[in-house]
């Protein structure tokens, strides 16, 4: 078995349920040898995770998953190997986090209108360390008995057109890529199969992403069906993008793939880590 590489994961700093150190320990126990922590819009867990990884002899990659508005849609861009001390990235993420607080109030007001009280406090109770997200509202709503599980709570309340959905403007693609590249990081388009864009819009997105300095895309991810993997491998090749893989793990039982379970990248993909010294260290 090849050494496991997982370049997409979440801790309690965003909407994961394990603290950064616990996440790293879980990854190590599942055979992961090189891990990126990529919390949504927040780099606050990287130092703790890096220290744990170092103690366990695991290669650790700084990461962040930036929320972006593109053509009236939300897309996610991973910054891998970002520096935690690049001022524009720090400021840009702080602004996104501030926007999340405003959005949370809008979400709570929408839920209030259909008779669900207390969701703002309820969501914040689940968001102890960093950002506030729809996942924290989802946990509150399930706990309060408004839905039975995560998939149904999103469907019922938290997606476009539902009472707890609040239209929000995230960072522009240009800004997000500028911050990542400026910090010395590698921009990777996260889970392209999740965007439901249609072929023309997907090609436009990949073209713009490339033009703005995007370098890679997730080909293997917990969000892709087996059919999507070769499809996005072909698009990566067509747009000369490097390929990445990550579980998007959010904690035990969180309706995402567990760590240490990812299939290999298809033949012909150039891995985003092809020239990383950290990858050399695990072979
Ligand atoms: P936000 O960035 O606040 O919009 O929250 C997005 C997060 O909610 C994603 O990163 C997922 O972790 C989670 N999420 C979104 N859609 C779903 C869904 N249908 N089922 C379960 N989790 C979801
Ligand atoms: Mn998430
Ligand atoms: Mn995502
Ligand atoms: Mn993610």
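-> sequence recovered:
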């Amino acid at each position: 078995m090849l050494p496991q590489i997982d370049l997409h994961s979440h801790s309690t700093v965003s909407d994961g349920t394990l603290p950064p150190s616990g996440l790293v320990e879980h990854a190590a126990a599942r055979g992961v040898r090189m891990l990126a922590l990529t919390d949504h819009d927040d780099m606050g867990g990287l130092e703790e995770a890096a220290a744990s990884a170092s103690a366990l002899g695991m290669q650790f990659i700084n990461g962040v998953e930036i929320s972006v508005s593109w053509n009236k849609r939300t897309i996610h861009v991973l910054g891998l190997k970002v520096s935690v001390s690049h001022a524009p990235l720090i400021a840009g993420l702080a602004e996104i986090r501030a926007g999340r607080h405003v959005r949370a109030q809008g979400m709570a007001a929408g839920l209030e209108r259909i008779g669900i009280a207390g969701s703002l406090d309820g969501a914040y109770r689940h968001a102890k360390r960093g950002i506030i997200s729809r996942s924290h509202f989802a946990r509150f709503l399930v706990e309060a008995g408004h839905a039975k599980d995560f998939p149904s709570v999103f469907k019922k309340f938290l997606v476009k057109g539902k009472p707890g959905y609040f239209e929000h403007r995230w960072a522009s693609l240009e800004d997000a890529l500028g911050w990542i590249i400026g910090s010395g990081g590698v921009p990777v388009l996260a889970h392209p199969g999740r965007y439901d864009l249609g072929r023309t819009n997907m090609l436009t997105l990949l073209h713009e992403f490339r033009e703005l300095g995007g370098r890679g895309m997730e080909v293997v991810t917990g969000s892709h069906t087996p059919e999507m993997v070769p499809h996005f491998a072909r698009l990566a090749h067509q747009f000369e993008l490097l390929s990445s893989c990550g579980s998007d793990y959010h904690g035990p039982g969180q309706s995402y793939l567990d760590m240490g379970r990812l299939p290999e990248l298809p033949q012909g993909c150039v891995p985003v880590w092809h020239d990383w010294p950290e990858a050399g260290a695990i072979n």
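The longest helix spans residues 87-113.
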